[in-house]
Amino acid sequence: xxxxxxxxxxxxxxxxxxxxxxxxxxxxxxxxSSSDLLNRYVTTVRYExxxxxxxxxxxxxxxxxxxxxxxxMGDHYGISEAHNEAMAEFLGKDEITPxxxxxxxxxxxxxxxPGITDQKPETISDAGGQVDVRPTLMHLLGVNTxxxxxxxxxxxxxxxxxxxxxxxxxFITNDYVYTKNTCYSQKTGEVLEDREACLPYKEKANEELSxxxxxxxxxxxxxxx
Length: 225
What we know:
Layout: H1 36-61, E1 70-73, H2 84-91, H3 98-103, E2 109-112, H4 133-140, E3 163-165, E4 171-173, E5 176-179, E6 182-185, H5 199-217
Antiparallel strand pairs: 1-2, 3-4, 4-5, 5-6
């Protein structure tokens, strides 16, 4: 009933800690591992899938689906490192390495745009972070952000460097993963003997985190008009 165009944001709660769900709402059995938390997590992921299906159907029934840009994204990882033993079992691995822990930070980012007929749906695998979401959506909506203060970049731009930095200083590019003072190959997960390959990106990561801290801790946006 809102006047169009409008923006609306929803957060799904069932697929959050402590991942508890009524038995009548469980669409699959719990996973069987040493972690009760991971076991429950699997059932809430399946529940969320079903909820999203009903959400899309409702949009179609209300006549909103073909007139809406729809964005699905995760806001953080699902299971913490405290459950690595069970996670290794779930993924069929001998262990979860620091490289794996960074990879498990990945979240879905899916954009549905109606009316696009000149290209087919595409999966883009470049590294990016949540700071890139706003610039990307503003670009797709045709909003000029040239004068805006933002750390992110349009994920669809040919000029950006695929890159994402985590709060603990770890970072990800298309070629490298750096975490706990170790440089890994993004493609193989193997430790690289040549740590110099990660150094330029390490400087970039440190600079971005430092600038972010200065803005937040100093409340510097109060000076921005």
